[in-house]
Write a structure and sequence with these properties.
By secondary structure, the chain is mostly beta strands. It folds into three domains: 92 residues, Nucleic acid-binding proteins (OB fold (Dihydrolipoamide Acetyltransferase, E2P)), CATH 2.40.50; 90 residues, OB fold (Dihydrolipoamide Acetyltransferase, E2P); 80 residues, Nucleic acid-binding proteins (OB fold (Dihydrolipoamide Acetyltransferase, E2P)), CATH 2.40.50. 13% of the residues lie in helices and 39% in strands. It contains five helices and 15 strands.
């Protein structure tokens, strides 16, 4: 009975919390995964947890956290089933930055300068808002969000020092970043192509990729289609990639257009019969 009562009390306590609330408590345990916190208002057991990545954007709080220490943290998630509230002390580390990022809404346009190009994406120093306490830029453009078109490296799309305008996607509370998209501010070449194309159209295109499941062919600026190898071998005489090489120009027919998933399906156009 007491266990049921404890569960009801903890769920009621957690149900009153909202993402963004500031909560205080006492560190109950420190592990390599983070810090368990006994929150003020519910002393029976620790319900709060600060993950190691949410302890500090500077990465120093884990080493300095001590059992019995008082902390103030912001709620970033509430899990009633697991009876746990997820917290971030990073929010109290840089409250101005947190408030700025929390005020942004999906689709907002943000401008800034390319601060660095990393293997995981591009960091942007925004024109407005506070700077990041650790990173060279508050904004992050993940590689897939750089361009609608295929590219080999981020430097094919942007360069350090370049000024860009991006669409805001989301607030990364773990890293204190604004996730951005550069391609969202530019026309999608696939949709433009699809506006003027129909199944059955005959086109010419350049082979851009040979994969086990078929051949990729560029048929328009920034638009590629797939000639599927339905056998999945990519090696038989009838496979679409058996007689072509990257760079070859070939004739194709549109067999399908999937606008929602941005996929174009093609087939090889049969060669015309020999005359005479």
């Amino acid at each position: 009975m007491s266990g049921s009562s404890d569960e009801e009390l903890s769920r009621g306590f957690l149900a009153a919390m909202r993402v963004g609330d500031l909560r205080e408590g006492t560190v109950a345990e420190v592990t390599r995964h983070g810090v368990a916190v006994t929150l003020d208002g519910f002393a029976a057991r620790p319900l709060g947890f600060v993950g190691s990545l949410n302890l500090s954007w500077a990465g120093s709080a884990r080493a300095s956290a001590r059992v019995g220490e008082r902390i103030t943290a912001r709620v970033i998630g509430v899990d009633l089933d697991q009876e746990r509230v997820w917290l971030a002390t990073t929010a109290t580390e840089s409250p101005e930055l947190w408030a700025f990022l929390d005020s942004l809404r999906a689709g907002d346009l943000l401008s800034g300068r390319i601060a660095s190009i990393e293997r995981f994406g591009v960091l942007v120093a925004l024109d407005e808002g506070p700077s990041h306490p650790v990173l060279p830029g508050v904004g992050l453009i993940a590689l897939p969000d750089l361009s609608w078109r295929r590219f080999e490296a981020a430097t094919d799309v942007v360069r350090v020092g370049e000024h860009v305008t991006c669409a805001f996607l989301s607030f990364d509370t773990t890293n204190g970043e604004a996730r951005l998209s550069l391609r969202a501010t530019r026309p999608d070449p696939f949709q433009t192509f699809a506006d003027n194309a129909s199944v059955g159209d005959e086109l010419r295109g350049r082979v851009t990729g040979l994969v086990p499941f078929g051949v990729f062919v560029q048929v328009g600026d920034g638009t590629e289609g797939l000639i599927e190898d339905r056998n999945g071998t990519g090696t038989s005489g009838s496979a679409p990639g058996a007689s072509v090489r990257i760079g070859d120009e070939i004739a194709v027919v549109i067999t399908g257009i999937d606008r929602e998933r941005r996929r174009l399906f093609l087939s090889r156009r049969p060669a015309p019969p020999a005359s005479g």
